[in-house]
Amino acid sequence: MAEVRPGGRTARVRASVLQATGDLLAEHGFAHLDLAEVARRADVGRTTVYRRWGTTTALVTDLLLDMAEQSLPRTDTGSLLDDLRANARLVQRTLSDARQSALFKAIIAAATCDEHAADALRGFYRTRVAEWAPCVELAVERGEVPAGTDPYEVIRAVSAPLYYQLLITGEVPDKAAADRAARTAHLAARAGAFV
What we know:
By secondary structure, this protein is mainly alpha-helical. It is 74% helix and 0% strand. The chain has 2 domains: 9-66, Homeodomain-like (Arc Repressor Mutant, subunit A, Orthogonal Bundle); 74-190, Orthogonal Bundle (Tetracycline Repressor, domain 2). It is elongated, with a radius of gyration of 19 Å.
């Protein structure tokens, strides 16, 4: 099997197809995602898209994988509150971006009725939570939070209110909401709520 060159034609095709997939999801939702339209928008052959991805769910899965890989790395400020604030503000910026919020809404909607899309979404969040969990582990080592604090639960507690605000209330979270989510998770972690 031929080795794929990073940055070569394969990488350019993938980037183009994933950009088109994200655009179409944001514009029309998962139910209207069409492989032929993705190929047309990406300016690649239909057979390339059908052969490489085959289904709309495979496209969404690859898009989420790419988004997880491209997302900004964890901040390490030396303070759990500041780390959680950085995480919350990253989530807030993503959810307040018109394209990104529409994209996440479409993917989350797809995940409610398609198990493969749900698996892809869970994989995305596992990757992102695992990226940020070490800041809680370091806080345990520094004595900021009790031993046995579940780092994954702390990180989930930061982003959950922001997604709730966007998806349930329909309000786009602002910086104040992000900071409040970080402070709340921090106070709960210090009080031992996540042990």
